[in-house]
Design goal:
214 residues; alpha+beta; Alpha-Beta Plaits; five-stranded antiparallel β-sheet
């Protein structure tokens, strides 16, 4: 089940408009506290900039929407960035666009376009992913069955019915594997593991977690 859409990773992207330098920093976050910590870090790194304009959207239903113009004319920078994120159906991310003024005023419309396009560059650089409910299964098996299970693993969680990816393995007297599958296929994968190991596989844990799937 899809919970929300967000960006894959922290990135930065840069462009120059009328000699003003715009550096957009974007980061996926889970809470407002994480977003505020990111904003503080970027402001610290670019304390000599003319403006550091922050915007965030947090919550599966985009409940938290906040921005500041950081000295730019009201409504020309932070708010349009929030509108962009909401319009794209994105949440749980924060963007800070840093500006070094180049001496040419852009006007109200120019500022809106500059900040919005800078934020969009960062989103495109980060890539968009879906965060879904995923079944995480930890199973302990003899080495005899490890290779059989490994060969059945897929590269992504978006393959097909009953497919899974291997998210890790611990090697001891037996192998403890962590498998991920789409929530609706969880029971099916567990039965497959039992059959594949002739009932000798020991399922240690099976729980629903939220993970990016593409």
């Amino acid at each position: 089940m899809e919970r929300y859409r967000t960006i894959r990773e922290e990135v930065s992207a840069e462009q120059t408009i009328e000699r003003s330098r715009f550096i957009a920093h974007a980061c996926p976050v889970a809470t407002r506290e994480e977003a505020e910590a990111f904003i503080a870090r970027i402001r610290g790194e670019y304390r000599d900039a003319t403006h550091n304009v922050p915007a965030m959207v947090i919550g599966e239903k985009q409940q938290i929407q906040w921005a500041s113009d950081d000295g730019e004319p009201q409504g020309t920078s932070g708010a349009p960035m929030v509108q962009l994120m909401v319009g794209e159906g994105l949440t749980n991310l924060v963007i800070v666009v840093t500006r070094y003024f180049g001496g040419i005023k852009l006007g109200t419309g120019g500022l809106v376009r500059a900040y919005t396009s800078s934020a969009r560059l960062a989103i495109e650089a980060a890539g968009i992913c879906r965060v879904c409910d995923v079944r995480q299964i930890r199973v302990r098996v003899d080495y005899t069955f490890y290779e059989r299970i490994r060969k059945k693993g897929e590269d992504t969680l978006t393959c097909g019915e009953g497919s899974f990816v291997i998210d890790g393995a611990e090697y001891g007297e037996k192998v403890t594997m962590t498998l991920l599958t789409q929530e609706e296929y969880g029971d099916q994968v567990e039965k497959m593991l039992i059959n594949l190991t002739a009932g000798k596989g020991e399922i240690l844990e099976s729980e629903t977690v939220q993970r990016p799937v593409d």
